[in-house]
Amino acid sequence: MALIELLETSTLFFISFVAIFSLMVGSFLNVVIHRLPVMMQTAWREQCTEFLANESVTTDTTTKEQEKDKYNLVVPRSACPKCGHQITALENIPVLSYLWLKGRCSSCKTPISKRYPVIEIMTALLSVLVAWQFGFSWQCLAALCLTWALIALSVIDFDHKLLPDDITLSFLWIGILLNLFGLFTDSISSITGAIAGYLSLWSVYWAFKLLTGKEGMGYGDFKLLAMLGAWMGWQALPGIVLLSSFVGAMIGIGLIVFRGRDKNIPIPFGPYLAIAGWIYLLWGGQITQLYFSIAGIR
Which residues pair with 111 in a beta bridge? Predict the structure, then answer.
């Protein structure tokens, strides 16, 4: 109780607590980002094997190997991909362990990707902004969880062009559940937002495909926008779509100009939706008022 009272009464302590805790969450997100796509691909291979009706001997062998080498978000322990050295607790402290190890494996001295501390720091910074915006409240706790989910989705989609249903669909239902109690919007707006979010991009997808014969986006994008609609209501969808287009244009131009990315290589839309959704979650009201002010609408 004393801790809860301190979190509630001291803004500095609350934000500091969120920052430290979010660094640890960022470390776990690194695991999710790396392992979840592998887990999905393994599940797809199993389904394909079952569909193709391979011989029972092959199936039995595969099952035994899976039982022997379990792979999920918990096991096996994180290890160096080069030498297999298992990461100890001291070597797994967010950011500090990276600095202490000078960005290298303690066993074989292979460089550790800078992505790990970057994601940890980014998770902490975004979480601090959420804590500052919402304060000590149930809204803050929910917004933090959504923020962490959006970070994982963005990086996975950027790497693999995948938006895992385990995250999008789970958080879609969580958004509807929370809004049954009016946490961010009313329940009707939440349910309508989920439906409208999915169908709007679904319609754009099929219109583009019928006109060009190409696929402009994946079904994961439909589910992501539906998830954001479930959290923030249908009223937020136009702003999120417009903002995501602006963010996408800015980042796309930056990747082409500064990193020399081939403009013909498709860039996943999921990260832009996630960024726009997160911005709208924190400052949607102010953005809408600014738009109306510029447009001369009162």
Answer: 104
Alpha carbon of 18 to those of 33, 124, 140, 185, 256: distances in Å? 21, 8, 10, 24, 35
Query: How many angstroms separate the CA atoms of 104 and 252, rounded?
Result: 32
Could you give the CA distance from residue 115 to residue 132 in angstroms, rounded to a whole number? 25
Helices 237-259 + 187-212 axis angle, to 10: 50
List, for residues 240-295, the tens digit of each pLDDT value.
Answer: 999 999 988 888 788 777 766 666 666 789 999 999 999 999 998 888 777 667 76
Cβ atoms of residues 18 and 127 within 8 Å: yes
| 41 vs 32: CA distance, rounded Å | 14
Assign 261 to helix, strand or coil. Answer: coil
Contact predicate 155/34, CB 8 Å: no
Rounded (5°) CA angle 228-230-234: 85
Residue found by looking up tokens 């991009």 in the block: 201
Per residue in 171-226, pLDDT tens? Answer: 999 999 999 999 999 999 999 999 999 999 999 989 988 888 888 788 999 999 99
